């Protein structure tokens, strides 16, 4: 072969290599294709064998066949669409998309607020007067323009409609004083008229008039100034948080009266008091200012919403929060009621559900369908997202975010022994019982904290998906410090504290007591079992017996202060620290614990200061100080908060996590590819 032929061959090899994208010899693991190229050259032909790597595969695109309709499949139906009466999450998911409030939460931040139907607001130095400047140019769905008078009427009507089963108690306290839970108590402070329209109508007319005027004087509209002023009875830190919820939704006064609500006359309010969810005038009709309008609600089947074509945020170019949308991305929302899991799973698998409620016990069926996993990062309070081992799978899973529900174990300081009490055995520190004041000794309370295995609890009761709680607040709450003081499982410290308890008599004699749980509640049963096992591991003479009780008997024993330890839970009403500080440190649970006066007085001072402060930084400081006191006094075992899951099709965009909203209920920010 001549040199010319040789160089031609070398050139051909180079050309073939370039044409096929193989600029260098590929590594063996990348060789996926062999190609033979025949080429005429001077003096004959040559065959060139080359290998090449193909171009990278394009990522799978996830696109919906119906990008303008959102399908939310759930298990709970709406009770009522009246914002002043509704007090459950299914109704909230509808109301929060139809109606709007004066203020709203700042995106994912559950502790700060941004203007909504109010452009701005001022708070007096004493924290008792709030002046809201009402946004102009906002129209209700029927075309009526919103005025300050509509705003004032909204809250006046809600309070005067009343109902102890409604959320109105969240307003009666700041307006009329702590412990006032219904407007009827302004007529009869003893509460004898609560929920009874018939009895209220028979009350003294002067008292009825005075009660109504107390309401109307507390909430005053000035149409000329464009303001609404709220006069509180005391400073109330969580007032903005209360306004931001569904029960703060602004309604159209004229339209509402036409549909049978209070006519605005203080001489008649008692005739509109005490509705039920079945006979509430606004039960199944709506007229909000929000991004969606009610198309129809068929109880037991579905609720359908349609986008508001004249939404004020679009017209005024006002995003819901910085970086958020100004208008709905999806034209139609279908909320399907499907109680049977198998059907919901089939819909999710077929792409007929954009998201649905997945029971925790059934996540193993759905997890293989997850192609993108977003894990909650507690340090940065956000998600870290990435592909799973099945990157082409159709679902996205948000996992690990803290919830707003918690169960704790509470110590009773003065156990009720009237008529005998089997829960405390002999009633003596003789190895066969405990005295009624057993938990008054701080060493006992600390020992029980050190003898609780949080890892086992999270693994066994929460399926491994939970975080240990620090103090009485919950993660993400204003004033919550994940690095704050807290107890950890430590058998050596448990043993040491028990040796010091009751001048050594506990370690010397041992003890025996019973802990009950309501039958069927495996979480509470697990708490009792962990305490039983961990204390027995220290010394077999530390005995806990576990008994299951019917719910009525269990609740009665707790209320009567007969159990030495009771295990109970709390779900917040508003995402504010007061909604945890009050029941846990001075209210419901403190009362059921028979908390000693000196301890109660210290907690009361902090709780009152926390709710009275209006500056978030000041409030956070107060709650951190209360958390330290809660640790020092150890009045309970603060357990763990279960973490949440949200599954969605990967063509969904715009979902974000704010613990105050239901996981699948914020449709305004969502889009579909």
What does this 3D model show about the protein?
The protein is an alpha+beta fold and 673 residues long. The chain folds into 4 domains: 3-52, no CATH class; 60-75 and 291-402 and 651-673, Periplasmic binding protein-like II (D-Maltodextrin-Binding Protein, domain 2, 3-Layer(aba) Sandwich), CATH 3.40.190; 83-91 and 100-280, Dipeptide-binding Protein, Domain 1 (Dipeptide-binding Protein, domain 1, Alpha-Beta Complex), CATH 3.90.76.10; 406-643, Roll (Dipeptide-binding Protein, domain 3). It has 21 helices and 24 strands. The protein is globular.
Secondary structure elements and their pairing?
Blueprint: H1 3-19, E1 33-41, E2 44-52, E3 69-74, H2 89-98, E4 103-106, E5 109-115, E6 118-123, E7 129-134, H3 148-161, H4 169-176, H5 197-201, H6 205-218, E8 219-222, E9 227-231, H7 239-243, H8 253-258, E10 292-298, E11 302-307, H9 312-316, E12 332-337, H10 341-350, E13 355-356, H11 363-366, E14 370-377, E15 382-387, E16 395-402, E17 405-411, H12 442-450, H13 454-461, E18 466-468, H14 491-500, H15 505-509, E19 511-518, H16 522-538, E20 542-549, H17 551-559, E21 565-571, H18 578-586, H19 588-592, H20 597-612, H21 616-633, E22 636-649, E23 652-653, E24 671-672
Parallel strand pairs: 3-12, 3-13, 14-16, 19-20
Antiparallel strand pairs: 1-2, 4-5, 6-7, 7-9, 8-9, 10-11, 11-12, 14-15, 16-22, 17-21, 17-22, 18-22, 23-24
